[in-house]
């Protein structure tokens, strides 16, 4: 029997038991759809988080105070912390390939203006923030170039703070109170949105020296360094390290490049996507059990048909291929239906819930479809072998 006739006969057997075939394929449909939906959410979260990290660009490195070393034993750590200073940030400006170095201090304070008040994030930064973080100024100007010792009480508002405190009126030149200190507004930033749930528009920017006094800090929380796009991240990291070693006399700081952060984050999120794909794979396993059960029942119900086929000359291999083809066709139908259902649900979710990041992971979808075919073939082997081993006379006598 040629393969075309074999699959035609298998298809006729499937369509003659529509309800049973539908219930058999339903397990795989649900399993494939679960894989498609879960991996799409995982890939969407993956892309969202990486996008949040790269919205400031990819040519950045951060210097943090303190260096932790280990001796190969759990819990055996020594942490040495020495403050990073504004002078350190200013010194890094002259490192080869460095475009800008920005000091950073962060806190939260009450903002008051014209009888209105709200609590907002306060960033103590340097004048290079628009260049380093790629945030434009909407009106006015950003903080001027001033030394840490004579930083004037200037403030730049995020777009949401400006709207909450001043509405449509211009805040430029107005006095506001941040904590217990008074500042003059010199600019308003363009809307930047959120980064990992942190609203950059609900923020006030002031000179880092003023922020250190406000939050009673002895040093900076970090220094963000922007370097040229054609420069090697490793070379810039080494140059920054050598400069700080010369200033501090010891490696009492930690340097983290954005590439390192992205690699770590990418590996963690890839494992997350794989984990949710494995959860969906459990549904595929359930579907394979369904195919195995139904095909085993089909062999028991069609003993007379098998005996007749064997009596008219069908070889054992032909009977084996017939039942195996039925299992493969069922898994093919279930896989196709599952992919269609899963993709449809993902598209619908993207329309109804635009805030939920979803992205079709076609590599996982293709893998799940291939696995469904393999599962169908594997689940059909045992019943097909059982059918092929039936003796013609015994099968006819059983009827």
From TrEMBL:
Subcellular location: Cell membrane
Principal localisation: membrane
Residue intervals of the MacB-like periplasmic core domain: 21-242
Keyword check for Membrane: yes
GO molecular-function terms, A-Z: transmembrane transporter activity
Record keywords: Cell membrane, Membrane, Transmembrane, Transmembrane helix
Stretches assigned to the ABC3 transporter permease C-terminal domain: 279-392
InterPro entries membership: ABC3_permease_C, MacB_PCD, Macrolide_Exporter_MacB
GO-annotated cellular components: plasma membrane
Membrane topology per record: Multi-pass membrane protein
Family: Belongs to the ABC-4 integral membrane protein family.
Protein name stated in the entry: Peptide ABC transporter permease
Protein species of origin: Methylomonas koyamae
């Amino acid at each position: 029997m040629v393969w075309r006739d074999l699959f035609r006969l298998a298809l006729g057997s499937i369509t003659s038991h529509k309800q049973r075939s539908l219930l058999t394929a339903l397990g795989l449909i649900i399993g494939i759809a679960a894989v498609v939906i879960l991996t799409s959410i995982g890939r969407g979260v993956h892309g969202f988080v990486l996008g949040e990290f790269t919205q400031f660009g990819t040519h950045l490195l951060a210097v943090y105070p303190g260096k932790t070393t280990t001796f190969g034993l759990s819990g055996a750590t020594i942490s040495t912390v020495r403050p990073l200073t504004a002078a350190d940030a200013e010194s890094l400006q002259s490192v080869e390939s460095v475009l800008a170095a920005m000091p950073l201090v962060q806190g939260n304070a009450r903002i008051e203006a014209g009888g209105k008040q709200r609590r907002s994030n306060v960033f103590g930064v340097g004048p290079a923030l628009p260049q380093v973080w790629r945030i434009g100024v909407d009106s006015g100007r950003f903080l001027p170039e001033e030394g840490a010792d004579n930083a004037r009480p200037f403030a730049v508002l995020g777009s949401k703070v400006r709207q909450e405190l001043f509405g449509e009126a211009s805040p430029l030149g107005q006095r506001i109170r941040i904590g217990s200190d008074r500042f003059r507004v010199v600019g308003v930033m363009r809307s930047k949105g959120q980064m990992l749930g942190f609203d950059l528009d609900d923020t006030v920017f002031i000179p880092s020296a003023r922020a250190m006094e406000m939050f009673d800090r002895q040093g900076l929380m970090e220094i963000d360094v922007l370097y040229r796009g054609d420069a090697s991240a490793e070379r810039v990291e080494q140059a920054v390290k050598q400069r700080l070693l010369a200033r501090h006399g010891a490696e009492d700081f930690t340097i983290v490049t954005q590439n390192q952060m992205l690699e770590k984050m990418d590996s963690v999120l890839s494992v997350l996507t794989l984990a949710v794909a494995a959860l969906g794979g459990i549904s595929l396993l359930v579907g394979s059990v369904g195919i195995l059960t139904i095909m085993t029942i089909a062999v028991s119900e069609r003993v007379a048909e098998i005996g007749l086929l064997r009596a008219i000359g069908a070889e054992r291999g032909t009977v084996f291929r017939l039942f195996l083809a039925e299992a493969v066709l069922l898994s093919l139908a279930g896989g196709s239906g599952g992919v269609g259902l899963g993709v449809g649900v993902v598209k619908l979710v993207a329309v109804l819930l635009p805030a939920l990041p979803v992205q079709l992971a076609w590599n996982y979808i293709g893998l799940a479809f291939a696995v469904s075919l393999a599962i169908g073939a594997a689940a059909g082997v045992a019943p097909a072998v059982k059918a092929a081993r039936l003796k013609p006379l015994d099968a006819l006598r059983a009827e």
